[in-house]
């Protein structure tokens, strides 16, 4: 039983491997056929750049949303004040003269011109712009209240930005350079085609400059002087000098 179970298990593994290998070969064949037929690569399509408003563009709105914090009891109140109106929170009067927000193509931000006045004796006041993204630029220096600009709501009003212009789709350069007639450079900056050796150039085509200057214009090479060789030493003849003879003789001692 153990051997039979092992055999079944082995056949199952072989069968599973055969199926897996067959699917892999099938997928490889499909992918290879698609690449061979030119369907595996998509042609480049030029896209127009996105239309974006300038950085100093604002859109007017009719309602300003303001958050007020009472520092004594930590109570937070969110007020929606219409432009040109006034709201009251305890002893604080909040007047809104303008409310502007960024258009949709820019980073979200809002600003409001606020007229704040604390009616307590010796209360502080604030008159100026408050920005939602940078609240430290306009702060009500009051020991009782903290006022923050949140956002602008309501309908669009002045100032209203101009409609976005339609971007121009760029033109991709041609893959094959074309030579301009009359010897002028091609439109994409490439050089004109040169005929192969042995053929007469077509009138109006430019000839490439030689890679090196002619031999007549090249500077002559300067060879460093060499020291003269010493004269040869004459070879001794006869028996005058046995030690210097070419062949040893019988009876010579070395």
Structure description:
Strands 1, 2, 3, 4, 5, 6 and 7 form a seven-stranded antiparallel sheet that branches. The protein is α+β, with helices and mostly antiparallel strands. 14% of the residues lie in helices and 25% in strands. Mean pLDDT is 73; it is low at 5-19 and 241-245. The chain has one helix and seven strands.
Brief rundown of the structure:
By secondary structure, this protein is of the alpha+beta class. It contains one helix and seven strands.
Instruction: Give the overall pLDDT as a whole number.
Output: 73
> What is the CA-atom radius of gyration, in angstroms?
47 Å
Structural class: alpha+beta
How large is the count of helical segments? 1
Q: How is the secondary structure organized here?
A:
Layout: H1 2-36, E1 59-70, E2 75-82, E3 86-89, E4 92-101, E5 110-118, E6 125-131, E7 145-157
What would the keywords be for this entry?
alpha+beta; 14% helix; 254 residues; elongated; seven-stranded antiparallel β-sheet; 1 helix
